[in-house]
Amino acid sequence: MKIAVDAMGGDNAPKVIVEGVERARDERKDLEFILYGDEQQVRPLLKSDERITLVHTTEQIEGDEHPVKAIRSKKQASMVLAAQAVKNGEADAIFSAGSTGALLAAGLFIVGRIRGVDRPGLMPTMPSMGDNPAFVMLDVGANADNRARQLQQYAIMGNLYAKDILGYANPRIGLLNNGTEATKGDELHQEAHKLLAGTEGINFIGNVESSGMLGGAADVIVTDGFTGNAALKATEGASRTILHELKHTILNSGIKGKLGGLLLRDGIKQVVAKFDASRYGGAVLLGLKSPVIKAHGAADSRAVYYTILQIAKLIDNGTVNKFVDYFSTHDMAAEQGKTDEN
Amino acid sequence: MKIAVDAMGGDNAPKVIVEGVERARDERKDLEFILYGDEQQVRPLLKSDERITLVHTTEQIEGDEHPVKAIRSKKQASMVLAAQAVKNGEADAIFSAGSTGALLAAGLFIVGRIRGVDRPGLMPTMPSMGDNPAFVMLDVGANADNRARQLQQYAIMGNLYAKDILGYANPRIGLLNNGTEATKGDELHQEAHKLLAGTEGINFIGNVESSGMLGGAADVIVTDGFTGNAALKATEGASRTILHELKHTILNSGIKGKLGGLLLRDGIKQVVAKFDASRYGGAVLLGLKSPVIKAHGAADSRAVYYTILQIAKLIDNGTVNKFVDYFSTHDMAAEQGKTDEN
Fold first, then answer.
1. 20 to 30 Å CA-CA from B147: which of A165, A195, B117, B192?
2. Domain boundary among A256, A284, A312
3. Are residues A147 and A256 in the same domain?
4. What's B98's domain CATH number?
5. Residue A231 is nearest to which of B234, B249, B262, comparing CB atoms?
6. Which residues in A lie closer than 8 A to residue B236 (C-beta atoms)?
7. Mean pLDDT, chain A, as a whole number?
8. Degrees (nearest 5) of the Cα angle A135, A137, A139?
9. Which helix (H) or strand (E) holds A256?
């Protein structure tokens, strides 16, 4: 299998991208890569070009560009070339740590949507302190607005992903809402609740609140992109702020505190590791015809490596084809007596 | 000044309510209380009835009742009687740790809205690790749906509150959004951004993301009730989960870890105290004609005490009257060329 890699996207590109790719390449003999990037920068970083093809380009999409315009005007951008390779069948999946908006645009306009999916959803894997080690959540920001039937599509894809990639036999699907009672929420979430409760083949456990996310309230948290973005960023921000304050306090609490910190170092490392999402890989843009995966902009080589492993599993398992199969045999609009698109 | 207290609301009522009230009463000679609750339960808890009038009632609103129906049918419920006392001018403010929905209903239908405020917003005070020690945020769930001009009203009230109660000279007002750029968000948040940018007398700093909440991104975070609820609960849930895991790890990391925990005890206590919101009191329902304050259902006597002090300050400063004055001299609908209500 072959992965198209945007070597220039992300805060620490191309260095960490090349390092992560090479680590995965050295471990997995079945992996091949096409790296799109500036040859002058990328070539010197490569230990070897075994199973790595380097395609030179100097064009690149910046974080502050308008995603759709950038995709359309910068035909030689590393991200655009990677997407083009997947569209042309030269590669099986896209990796990028670049702009999420641009990657979504490249996914939509170059790779294309799965028929039956209105809007792709961005789905990270997060650590859970519940019975299962992790949960997925979508959409966390590919969309600023979602409709109820899009949330239903997210539930279906999230369910298949949790089974296929996380290995959960019967993932618990929860709807992120402002209370657990079935009647809670605004119109969108009340309608989504009804749709999910009536969807066959998923284990819908009802509404969940964002307070329970890290505690394992659900294996798949279904949410609109605006709320999901706020809940995810609040979780990340709170975790970061607390761990930072803890570190700061230990370093500034005199000899006694420092000694305590030293003795507790392993324990604190364990806690930090437990809340580290990067070992689960990147965020998947679910609903596109091929796997399109976004690593965090601040990803280090380890995060890149884990994301490559995640992509390999997605390709191996043919997970995206399972989405395609599902939506080609379930005309959800017709089932719901609706014919509206988008 | 006199505070009407729902002695029966909350998980640990009436015990912690009475304890908190008495502590505040003993410290502040200018405070008087009317406690509404079951005399058989409340009377034995009272150390003294100095400046405390106990009004007996056995009716009570449960958390799972429909708020509006409960308020209308249970005329003798402790919360309803407290609201009635404020409406009749017998008391200056309401304290309750009971159902938020019911308290909102009691506020709306008994106390009444300030003219010019479409929908009251629920506003907690949260600790901040930024330059200022705390920030406020509204609405965090009084509404499942909000309109842009309601967010503008929240900005105005939050601004006055942050000046009057937190003592910030020029509070930084931020709009919670899915990115910092002015064009970010769905239609509601794009419109709210424009309204806030055009509102005189507030220091609008633009969009803020929920990742920056605890870090001090803004002094007043303006948000719709659905998103605010998700961001607040995610923050609370992540903080709780991390501190729990840390404690669990220390207790299970052998002699070395336990010793480290012992040495670090003061430091960890400091961190926990830094993230403790209860010293700032309860959540205020802004937009009602009198102060209506909700303590956390799980509040202990210390949280009740701090909430009483917060209420005393609100009464002392006449903060609610400043809201009334503002909205009576600013016809915001007319200023914006709009005449629609709600």
1. A195
2. A284
3. yes
4. 3.40.718.10
5. B234
6. 211
7. 93
8. 170
9. helix A254-263
Asked which of A59-68, A76-85, A157-166, B227-236 is least confident by mean pLDDT, the reply is A59-68
The DSSP string of A65-90 is: S-HHHHHHH-TT-HHHHHHHHHHTTS
Smallest Cα distance from A164 to chain B, Å: 27
Structure-block tokens of residue A48: 């070897």
For residue A229, give how far its alpha carbon lies from the nearest alpha carbon of chain B (Å): 6
Identity at B88, one-letter amino acid code:
N
Same domain (yes/no): B19, B160: no
Instruction: Give the β-pairing of A283-286 and A220-222.
Output: unpaired
**Please, are residues B212 and B255 in contact by the beta-carbon 8 Å criterion?**
no
Q: Mark whether A298 and A253 lie in a shared domain.
A: no
From the list B230, B243, B250, the residue facing A230 with the nearest CB is: B230
Q: Is the Cβ pair B243, A242 closer than 8 Å?
A: yes
Give me the residue label for tokens 């959800």. Answer: A332
Q: Are residues A141 and A272 in the same domain?
A: yes
The strand pair at B283-286 and B121-123 is best described as antiparallel
Shared-domain flag, residues B135 and B34: no
Q: In terms of residue numbers, what domain contains A317?
A: 1-117+287-342
Residue A173 falls in which region: left (phi positive, over 0), alpha (psi -120 to 50) or beta: beta
**How many domains is chain B built from?**
2
- ipTM score of complex: 0.92
How far apart (Å, rounded) are the C-alpha atoms in residues A319 and A310? 11
Give CA angle at A292 (A291, A295), nearest 5°.
125
Which residue in A has a C-alpha nearest to residue B240's C-alpha? A211
Q: For residue A275, which residues of chain B lie inside 8 Å, CB to CB? A: 242, 245
Q: Are B211 and A233 an interchain contact pair (Cβ–Cβ within 8 Å)? A: yes
Q: Do B327 and B256 fall into the same domain?
A: no
Residues B242 and B260 in one domain: yes
Residue B269 confidence (pLDDT)? 87
Domain end point (choices B256, B278, B300):
B278
Confirm if B209 and A233 have CB atoms less than 8 A apart: yes
Secondary structure E strands in A84-133: 93-96, 121-123, 125-127
The torsion angle over the Cα atoms of residues B39, B41, B42 and B43, rounded to 10 degrees, is 70
Taking contacts as CB-CB distances below 8 angstroms, the residues of chain A near B264 are 250, 253, 257, 260-261, 264
R_g (Cα) of chain B, nearest Å: 21
By the 8 A CB rule, do B102 and B245 touch?
no
Query: A231 CA to chain B: closest CA distance, Å?
Result: 5
User: DSSP code of B278?
Assistant: G
| Token digits of residue A171 | 């993932």
Reading the block at residue A30, the tokens are 């079945």
Closest-CA distance, A202 to chain B, in angstroms, reads: 24
Q: State the Cα–Cα distance between residues B28 and B25, nearest whole angstrom.
A: 5
- Angle CA A68–A69–A72, to nearest 5: 85
Is B237 within 8 Å of A211 when comparing Cβ atoms? yes
Q: Do B271 and A229 touch (CB under 8 A)?
A: no
Mean pLDDT to the nearest integer, A1-11:
96
Residue B287 corresponds to which tokens in the numbers above? 């937009």
**Contacts of A132 by beta carbon, 8 Å cutoff, 6+ apart:** A166, A168, A216, A219
Q: Which two tokens stand for residue A104?
A: 């979504």
> B227: nearest CA in chain A?
A227
B148 and B259 housed in the same domain? yes
Three-state DSSP at B55 gives strand
Q: What is the pLDDT of residues A80-131, one digit of tens each?
A: 999 999 999 999 999 999 999 999 999 999 999 999 999 999 999 999 999 9
